[in-house]
């Protein structure tokens, strides 16, 4: 069953096991049960011994995205979210999907100020266009969902006025007005801005 990804069986040379990350990360839902996890685990072990991680390029980015975005990593997976977040920060500081993954993880850890700064960076990159183009990603990452996440992170970090301000572009948009107003009403529970 195809998924529009590379056919990594035709890749040769030392990068061939690394290129399998790309396939496994992008085709995860279609992977043979157990096989995708095996390929990703091998990729994580390769990262642990690699000398020049940046040379791994987009397959490394995809592995980091998988580790940061997967709600429940397989037991014994050889890379932690902490390591993935550090590698993402070091090697791909302008990658919207990795910034998003780091922000999501930070929010889950209760680090709302950090999450807010990372979602701010995602939006900043979307406005400037100065983001990494290592791999394709869904451009909606620069849209309303990030504004909502940023607004919530501001509120949880005690920055309620900024949380409300963050929703302004959505309230002014006819397509998002009702949902943004509803979200703004829920911010009222956080107290005055």
Rg over alpha carbons: 19 Å
Provide the residue-averaged pLDDT: 75
The number of helical segments is 10
Largest beta sheet, briefly? none
Number of strands: 0
What is the oligomeric state here?
Answer: single chain
Q: Which runs of at least 5 residues are low in confidence (pLDDT < 50)?
A: 1-33
Q: Could you estimate the helical fraction of the residues in percent?
A: 55-70%
* N to C succession of SSEs: HHHHHHHHHH
Inertia-based shape: elongated
Strand content: under 5%
Structural class, please?
Answer: mainly alpha
Q: Determine the N-to-C terminus distance.
A: 53 Å
Helix and strand topology:
Blueprint (H helix, E strand, L loop, with lengths): L15 H11 L8 H15 L8 H12 L11 H11 L4 H13 L3 H17 L15 H13 L3 H7 L1 H4 L5 H11 L6
Helix pairs in contact: 1-2, 1-3, 3-4, 3-5, 4-5, 5-6, 6-7, 7-8
Task: Provide an overview of this structure.
The protein is mostly helical. The protein is about 60% helix and about 0% strand. Helix 1 (about 15-25) crosses helix 2 and helix 3 (about 60-70) runs antiparallel to helix 4 (about 80-90). The longest helix is centred in the middle third of the chain and has 17 residues, at about 110-130. It is elongated and about 45 Å long. The protein starts with 15 loop residues before the first helix and ends in a 6-residue tail after the last helix.
